[in-house]
Amino acid sequence: MTDTSNAQLQALFEKQKRAFASDRYPSLAVRLGRLKQLERMMIEYRQPMRDALAADFDSHHPLVTDLFESGAIIARGRYIQSQLESWMRPQVRELHPMVHGSSSARVIHQPKGVIGNISPWNFPIECALVMINDMLAAGNRAIIKTSELAPASAEVVRAAVASHFDGDLLAVVTGGVDLGRHFAMLPWDHLTYTGSTSVGRLVMEAAAKNLTSVTLEMGGKNPTVFADDGFESSLVERFLYFRVFKGGQVCTSPDYVLVPEGKLDQWVDMAKQAWTTLYPKYVGHPDATGAINNHHYRRVMSYVEEAQKKGVLVISLNGDEPNPKRRQIPMYVVVNPPDNLQCMQQEIFGPVTPVKTYKIFDDAIAYINARPSPLAAYLVTRDDTLVEKFSTQVTSGGMGVNVFGFQAADPTLPFGGTGASGIGCHSGFEGFVNFSNNKSIFNCADDDPLMHAIRPPYDSGMAQAFADAVFTPME
Ligand code: NAD
Question: What value, to the nearest 5°, has the Cα angle with vertex 289 and ends 51 and 323?
Fold first, then answer.
């Protein structure tokens, strides 16, 4: 596969801009046809996509590909197809008759135009394609830039899209950081970036020069709080199998755990028991996903080594040893590390879990809120009062109760971060809105009182009456 040159990208971009100019508001039927085409493409490419992910990660279970990479794209598209007619309907807004008489107002969702989508290596197929559903549904055209760190997946995404779509509607460009930089500088009608917070800042800076709106989907350290009543073996087991999912290389992975003081040993014992029962041997198991490359394998292992060097207890839950050749890392727990260790400073993105303690539930909330807002925050409890408190008091992109990542995976729900974990969202009706120009249209009737009130001269009395009404305190 040869990389796309800047000139080729420029030509594609201009072609899409021209095509958009010739059809600025595609009909429902046209949009549904495009979504169906994406669905057909995903079904046809099921096996090549499984093969590509297995090649990029060295080991990647085909059912993980089917369900959470390719299948997620199909599921999102089907849900949108079932909703699109109602989403495209103009929203009528009720005006106050004393202010506006029989005037009317509505909001239409106009396509933004040509959207750029920069995607990462960890979900190299899903992140490249899932939000294309939202973009096409909203009537846009798009160019995807895949990640150079997952080359087999990048190639399969390119080949699939090229075989099913005209380049003036949907296209893929492949290349590394240089192409990424150039991509971010183009005057897109909207730019979406999924990846690390540090690169997200650069992408937003580049977009700002063109006043291009952005959606930034980033990561961070997602906390999991076990409440006093959350110490059930099935819940600890559930935490572990979500934690290790895709080798922990998921933006919504639970990153670190907070448990009540005095219950740390109990949590570690329960985790050992649950993990050893699930996987007497995990490293080498067909379910295990490898780290994407040696750099990331070494990065995660360096967190383990640093903790050990500093005298912090690190436990491989079932006694597994790492396998550098296959880049597989055991499920490690780092017991009560100080906050200045790398494992408490960086997003881990691997199956290594620091576990810390809190005195009272409010302290756990304060600990989370004192750090950059995470993409996800998790609570393990059966207590609805705690759920209510955590939902309203913790600032995070999304939240899971007794589950991890499902808040980000269901097509009915918006998915996005806040603060350091992101801006904007995709998925759900909110995703459709995010990729639309939400345009207010006011249709003035001849009997509109406010319109008459501002007819000069202003001191005719009507404007005064309106102003006095506004400043009269309401009961
Ligand atoms: P990455 O290194 O693959 O980078 C992402 C993309 O940015 C690539 O296509 C890359 O070529 C491009 N890029 C790099 N430098 C650039 C620049 N200066 N200008 C423009 N583009 C540039 O991926 P990564 O950053 O290692 O991804 C992992 C991160 O992504 C994690 O933090 C994870 O939490 C986050 N993530 C977030 C979501 C989400 O939906 N919120 C989903 C997946 C991953």
Answer: 120
